[in-house]
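Q: How would the structure tokens look for this protein?
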Amino acid sequence: MLDRDQLETFAAVIEESSFEKAAAVLNVTRGAVSQRVKALEESLSSVLVIREKPVVPTAAGEVLLRHVKALRLLEDAALAQLMPKESNRTSVPIAIAVNADSLATWFPRILWPLLLRRRVAIEIVTDDQDHTLGRLARGEVIGCISTEQRSATGFVAEALGAMEYRCYATPGFAEQHFRGGLSVQAALTAPAVLFNRKDSLHDDFLERVFGFRVDRYTRHYLPAPNALLEGVLSGVGYGLVPTVQARQFADLGQLVDLAPAMPVLVMLYWHHWEVEPPLSQEITGLIVEEARRSLVAHEPQL
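A: Here is the predicted structure in token form.
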């Protein structure tokens, strides 16, 4: 049987990315932390952590980290049944990876009710939807929203629906830069507003419009959905914005769709453990239900 103190110490080291910070969180010495992790590694005959800065788990460590997180959730479920009226029970920590556009639009509609009725300490990790899956594999989160359709061994990917984006600009910007329509020359000279350097959505959109890759264009990076929208609304550039986020401004005539016949649909999937503790099951149910109300019904491409 695995030692629970050793398991929690190992998890703290990975969650804090440091032996020293884990010692401070656990209120023990750095030496005690190192001894517990070493003893755990010896009991499993496996190296669990890569002792660099920051500390990261090995492949075996990723498996064990997921085990610790599942143990915490199972313990919380058992205590909730055994002591339903206990008000001093510690909140169970959970982390979920959510793409920034979902967090800025539909995801809060499940987040606030969950926090109001369940004793959880939640961490929402934001990333581009193409890059959240690695966090689940590493054991950093109990689930993630991703564009990846295929699930890894031990995980399930549930289709949520598609986030619809449209290419918007202010009327003044469109008149100045796209008077003759969305042309290659205009796209090369007009500044575009992108989320960050990981964001390939704009590149993919231009390739779809013109039939070939367009790379050398001016771009601004505003790594927050509201900031990106504000950038487009202020006229500093044009860009792809979730339709649900921009609709009110388009209805008021403050934004125009530069390619009304070419909306971009990004299929999203909820990846989670194949065998889920009760709280994880509840979260999965809430996410799937709200996503299917809020996103565009869209068949995934096989």
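The first helix runs from residue 4 to 16.

Residues 163-263 form a domain with the D-Maltodextrin-Binding Protein; domain 2 fold (CATH 3.40.190.10).

Upvote if useful.
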